[in-house]
Amino acid sequence: MAWFRGSDPNLVPSVDTAVLLVNLGTPDAPEPGPIRRYLAQFLGDLRVVEACPWYWLPILHGPILTFRPRKTAHLYRSIWTEAGSPLRVHSVALAEALAQHYTLDASIRIELAMTYGQPSIAQAIERLQGFGVRRIIVLPLYPQYSGTTSGAVFDAVAKVLMKWRKVPHLSFIADYHAHPAYIAALAESVRETWSREGRGHLVFSNHGIPVKYVTAGDPYRRQVQETTRLLVAELGLGADDYSECFQSRFGPTEWLQPYTDDRLAELAARGVREVTVVTPSFAVDCLETLEEIGTASREKFLEAGGTRFSLVPALNASHGHVAALAAVLGDQGLPRR
After folding, report:
1. Are strands 108-116 and 135-140 parallel, antiparallel or unpaired?
2. Confidence at residue 107, expressed as pLDDT on a 0 to 100 scale
3. Cα Rg for the chain, rounded, in angstroms?
4. What is the pLDDT of residues 279-337, one digit of tens each?
5. 217 φ, ψ (degrees, to nearest 5)
6. Residue 186 in contact with residue 315, Cβ under 8 Å?
7. How many CB atoms lie within 10 A of CB 222?
8. Cα(139)–Cα(124) distance, rounded to whole angstroms?
9. What CA dihedral angle connects 252, 211, 294 and 243, to 10 degrees?
């Protein structure tokens, strides 16, 4: 599934450079068992939950993994497609589209991996070893850097490469939050939604992280703000035309605020009846965009008095997204087409 230039990798005479696209991951099925295995790996990563393992792991493997998989299974079922998890489906489509962009250069290989779940980073890199890859460019599909996301990808890559006798040249793209091609792709996706569904107050809903991570030096919030600033400028918005907020908080720890649902309720109370929600920190649509925002947040806004809620699709495998990632890779020396 992860090789995107023909079905038989033996047809490729040599691979000079491999691009390793990495997304978060997904359960294999919308059922408690697969969800439990996925959450155990995801929430067991101390990059994600920075807590004393002697304290955290018993809680994780006790009440959380006992009750949360059953609670979230119906949420996954509500977004699951015949082809599988939307995150996996869109990630595969994006990798295929990016491979097609480089179809004339057989020395470039596109490989897809997930930090948690399948296909794993270890499996992907081990496949590359058999091709004698000279260089690996790691591109986490997180426009804004956080230790909880891109940092976790780096850890997983390093863990695999430390076992190689000859380590390849390694390029790690930490973020692309301010890249002009990425901002242009976001702006075009917003304009397309406005053209199709009507213009509304633009709500930037970004995935949140605990405040203590930012205090400790994580640049995520600053990069989110920079993405917002650049997209606002690209769209020519005024100060009252948009709001920036954060979603997906977990546990009792204070997370980045304002929270998306609180901001949506505040907008409705102020008389803002129509909103357009964009999720710039998500490269492809997934549970957090489709269910958390597209269903739950939509219902809360309408219940608070809103009349129209439009969700801008994630960039997914759009032409603009492929062009943006190709531009990011072009900065690393890959052909610009």
Report:
1. unpaired
2. 85
3. 20
4. 999 999 999 999 999 999 999 999 999 999 999 999 999 999 999 999 999 999 998 77
5. 120, 0
6. yes
7. 12
8. 13
9. 130
What percent of the chain is helix, strand and coil (3-state, nearest 5)? 45, 15, 35
- Domain 180-311 top-level CATH class: alpha beta
Query: Which of 1, 34, 38, 23 minimizes the C-alpha distance to 117?
Result: 38
CB distance 19 to 109 below 8 Å: yes
Q: How many residues does the chain have?
A: 337
What is the Cα–Cα distance from 88 to 79, expressed in whole angstroms?
Answer: 12
Question: 251 and 207 in contact (C-beta within 8 Å)?
Answer: no
36 vs 39: CA distance, rounded Å: 5
What letter does residue 152 receive in the DSSP assignment? H
> Measured between alpha carbons, how far is 95 from 266 in angstroms, rounded to an integer?
39
Dig out the tokens for 245 from the structure: 């907020």
Which tokens is 171 given? 């390029």
CA distance 251 to 185: 34
pLDDT tens-digit readout, 57-83: 999 999 999 999 999 999 999 999 999
* Chain-centroid distance, C-alpha 26: 11
Q: Beta-carbon neighbour count of residue 47 at 10 Å?
A: 18
C-alpha to C-alpha distance for 228 and 262, rounded to whole angstroms: 19
Distance CA 112, CA 23 (A): 8
* pTM tops 0.85: yes
Q: Is the dihedral of CA 75, 79, 81, 87 positive or negative?
A: negative
In the chain, the percentage of residues whose pLDDT exceeds 90 is 88
Helix axes of 180-197 and 220-235: crossing angle, nearest 10 degrees = 60
**Alpha carbons 264 and 231: distance in angstroms, whole number:** 20
Q: Which residue's entry shows tokens 């890199």?
A: 125
Render pLDDT for 120-164 as a digit per residue (tens, 0 to 9). Answer: 999 999 999 888 899 999 999 999 999 999 999 999 999 999 999
